Amino acid sequence: MILIDGKKIAAELREELKQEVSELKAKYNKVPGLTVILIGDMAPSQIYVRNKEKFANEVGLKSEVIRYPETIEEKAVLDKIEELNKDESISGILVQLPLPNHIDKQKVIETILPGKDVDGFHPMNVGNLSSGYESSVPCTPLGCYLMIKKIEPNLSGKKAVMIGRSNLNGKPMAQLLLKENCTVTITHSRTKDLKAECLEADIIVAAVGIPELVKADWVKKDAIVIDVGINKTDKGIVGDVAFDEVSKVAKALTPVPGGVGPMTIACLLKNTIECFKRSLK
Ligand code: NAD
């Protein structure tokens, strides 16, 4: 079984990005800029944002985190986004989710210019992705996609099953694999026989939020299994895939932690650089 080492692949990707940033700097005398807006003090968001800042600095991006208290008014956030939209030194804007209840997530997403939407959540980017046009692609599925391609460069005709249909994971993941000519099935909480669907799959991407949902007898021999889930349990953080047993049947599997997580952040940096390059066109 191939253990898909997300930490290592992400480090390699960051090295490539660092090189690219230094070439862009030499050519244009400026570097891509990423601004993250963090509202409130939820612990996981604080950790994610700290890591984003650390790695953005590591690859040489201009990086800034704007922190607001939980009580900040929606209008102040939207006004700040408008200001960042106009700032030519900022290539990418990310508002860390989740948001406090009084702030409308959709309004926030739609206020970010599509060209600066490094999360790929703006409807324009979602539409472009599903139409097969150039767009920002959500960071987590992009990271999953890059790892799958490392294992299997030619995905044409493969059967891929997404578990979970979220806008963040399942849906954009399905679009990326469809573009690679996979036959794609999106399953969800109302799917009648999830095990039977999974047993058909050459590729399984599990993004559910249920600890160790995917068992060994759900997985076809030699399938590629990508585990997006992050679940806190008594025995620590586990994914949506029962790692020990599935590792005995799968051809390749991502660990949790150390699989999809590091790739998500590396892809945010990649998206920032892509936004910068598109802004030069
Ligand atoms: P979500 O709650 O938005 O979506 C979960 C999906 O799972 C839904 O589409 C739902 O229909 C489906 N589902 C629920 N129960 C099911 C069942 N019994 N069988 C089949 N499908 C079922 O979640 P999300 O934001 O997509 O995140 C999913 C998981 O991925 C979470 O554990 C989250 O923490 C993790 N995550 C990890 C990263 C990362 O970088 N590694 C990034 C984002 C999310």
Features:
three-stranded parallel β-sheet, 10 helices, alpha/beta, globular, 11 strands, 2 domains, 281 residues, Rossmann fold
Question: How does the SSE layout of this entry go?
Answer:
Layout lengths: L1 E2 L2 H23 L4 E7 L3 H17 L2 E7 L5 H13 L5 E4 L9 H7 L11 H9 L7 H13 L7 E5 L6 H10 L3 E5 L6 H6 L3 E4 L17 E4 L3 E3 L2 E3 L4 H4 L5 E2 L6 H21 L1
Parallel strand pairs: 1-11, 2-3, 2-4, 5-6, 5-7, 7-8, 8-11
Antiparallel strand pairs: 9-10
Helix pairs in contact: 1-10, 2-10, 6-7, 6-10
The protein binds nicotinamide-adenine-dinucleotide.
The site of nicotinamide-adenine-dinucleotide (NAD) has 24 residues, from α10.
Written overview of the protein:
There is one protein chain. The chain is of the alpha/beta class and 281 residues long. The protein folds into two domains: 29-114, Leucine Dehydrogenase, chain A, domain 1 (Rossmann fold), CATH 3.40.50.10860; 139-260, 3-Layer(aba) Sandwich (Rossmann fold). The chain has ten helices and eleven strands. The strands form three sheets. A six-stranded parallel sheet has the order 1-11-8-7-5-6. Helix 7 links the parallel strand 5 and strand 6 (183-187). It is globular and about 50 Å long. The mean pLDDT is 97. Nicotinamide-adenine-dinucleotide (NAD) binds next to helix 10.
